[in-house]
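example protein:
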Amino acid sequence: MIERSHRTLSVGAQCRLLSISRSSFYYAPLGETERNLALMQLIDRQFLETPFYGVQQMTWHLQNEGHPVNVKRIRRLMRLMRLMPIYQKPNTSKPAKGHNTYPYLLGGLRVDRPNQVWCADITYLPMRRGFLYLVAVMDWFTRKVLAWRTSNTLEADFCVEALNEAVHRLRPPEIMNTVQGSQFTSFTWTDRLKRIGARFSMDGKGRCLDNIFIERLWRSLKYECVYLHAWETGSQAKAGVGRWINFYNHQRPHAAHGGQPPAVVYFNQIETVQQRQRVA
């Protein structure tokens, strides 16, 4: 927005026109300390084991493990990581201002074919000197990861990019299920879903089990890939996640499908549905 080498306007003049201070333009975020990054990794591992731990319980757990932390620090880090315990609690994942949340549509629904229901969620990816966020779009019936993106911010754009890729490559879903975070209640996301004709479904607040299959995906990804590496850069993390997701889709046996990988089940089911339609 501000051009350092503008031919007629100085940086100061541009800042005044945009009503921002020069100091804010020159400010460079310091990022998290090594200590906080180490704590975030410990919190992430423990949360996979005990997703009902709130801020106070997580603080006690870390203190019992010998880490001198307080509630204020753990609350900030858990909010930064988007971790929401499965009990009802004060809202730490607020919907976008001015936008509505939607009811959970999957309770009692029989999901028996690909592209009937998709789900999406965001998780935290630790690196050696920082962290990224990962969004994935998954087919609920086959558990196939249809698209994914990484980002160093929690803006809605990278979520919409993943959705666009999935819609471009495949047929749109009948229902899209997400959490109630601001990315999924934003105008950018909801407008895209309306244009493809998908119905909205959202998890109950503080109920990660409503989106259980993608929560299981995060657990497998963390233990089988993320925690086995200490990525230095975002590009390394992205490449590593890409390799694992390709393995997960095409090679990793899945218990829900009798040992068949999700991609095999997905494309076999799509072919079966198409054959039935041709016969009909």
Observations:
- The radius of gyration is 21 Å.
- Residues 117-276 form a domain with the Nucleotidyltransferase; domain 5 fold (CATH 3.30.420.10).
- The first helix runs from residue 11 to 17.
